[in-house]
Amino acid sequence: MGGWAYGALALGAISLPSFLLVAGTLPVWERVRHRPGMRATLRGVNAAVVGILLAALYDPIWTEAIQGPVDFALALSAFAMLAFWRLPPWIVVAFSAAAGAALAVAR
What we know:
Elements: H1 3-25, H2 29-32, H3 36-65, H4 69-83, H5 89-106
Helix pairs in contact: 4-5
C-alpha cells in the first residue's frame, strides 16, 4: 500500500465522521432545529469554528508566509479578488501562485 492508497484512506477517515453525523441527524433535524437551546448551541458552534479558522490563519499561515509589506499586499489582493470582485477561487490561486513564484525569483 503506497502514497495514493494511504491518502485515500486518510481522506475517508477524516470525512466519514461528518458524513455519519449528518446521516444520523437528518431524520430529526426539522424537529430539533426550531428549539431555542439547539439554535443557541449552533450559534456557539459557528462562533467556535470561526475562531478555529482564524487561529489556523494566524499560525502558521500568517506567521510564516507574511514576511513583509509585499507579501501582505499579495495576500490583501487575493482577498480582494475573492471578497469584492468575486473571482473564482481557482483564478485567485493561480494568480497568487504565479505572483509568489515571481516574488521568490525577485528575492
